[in-house]
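We both want to read discrete structure tokens more fluently, so let's practise on a single case. Would you supply a protein for us yourself, any chain you care to pick? Would you write everything just below, so we can both look at the same thing?
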Amino acid sequence: MARVYVALICLALIGALSHSTLGASEPSPAAPTAAAAKKKAVSEYRAAVIARAKVWQPTDVASMDVKTGPPAPGPFATGETITCTYLDVKLGGKTPKFACTNDDNPHLKIKYGGDNGEVFGEVLSSRLLWALGFGADHMYSVRVVCRGCPSSFNGVDRNGQESVFDPAAVERKMPGAAFRPDDGWSWEELDLVDERAGGATRAERDALKLLAVFIQHTDSKSSQQRLICLDDTDGDKQAHASGKAPMPCDRPFMLIQDGGVTFGRANRFNRDTRGSANLKEWSRTPVWQDANSCIGNLPKSATGTLDDPAISEEGRRFLADLLTQLSDAQIQDLFAAARVTLRLRDPGDAKSGFGTIDEWVAAFKQKRDEIVQRRCTS
């Protein structure tokens, strides 16, 4: 009998403890409500900022020095030699790259390798976007002498202490503070821009979509585009970082920030060989899906967010007008600035030989004609 009483007492104690434990672990009803409200407020503020965003700035295209590129801050000449010391900093993405520093630049981001198509594609895309008035980071084709770079980078060894990387591309960010907490944007979000709220017009937005088709911007995941605030100040950044104020953004701007996988052919897995500075593929890839529609020929990749966009007539006209303002000399300078003559016509075929600037220019003009001659009336 005593054993029965002991068993009953134990069961009672276990039940009490279980009830107490469950009660203690239950979250306060107010906690998720407050978190949800904060998340909703952040989402609504971001949407309001995007609604006012611009994607293009008025630009005198014919006067743009395409070969020299953006004048500030701190430009580099095409083929200029940069000497710097390796920084052991982890950089995102899979393409070969490293960070280094010198007396003039505390942090340089370098992409390198003649078999790395992004070295060419990112200079081409950023220089064209900039010349037409769309946002882009400033990319320059250079030669880099790196002190202390790991031998695994396969640079050309010099005196056992320095490695030479040529060709290479160095990056300068477009001026403006990255929007926080998330500065990436998908192409679906571009449709949230509202001209009535002060944002970009439909013509400007569709022109940007069509330009993405033109350059075959296949790797269009959110992190490849950036939302910046052109008006931000150091004080604004500090207030936002401390959590005391939402990030002020009177002049939001949306841009393509990584156009390395361009000037080739869009492909599902963003393959560099096919998608980056591939003259053979780019020259034979039509701008439009078919002979009559105004659906851009840009199937999205596995990570992409832009998929065969429909283009309005006002968007087509807008981009056609910008492209036709480029002179033959400017188009030649575009490809000279990227040093495309160091890239195989077909990077997947070692026997294809190196493409010439004239061949790249001819492909550019043919694709421009496809845009100029189309009419999007439906």
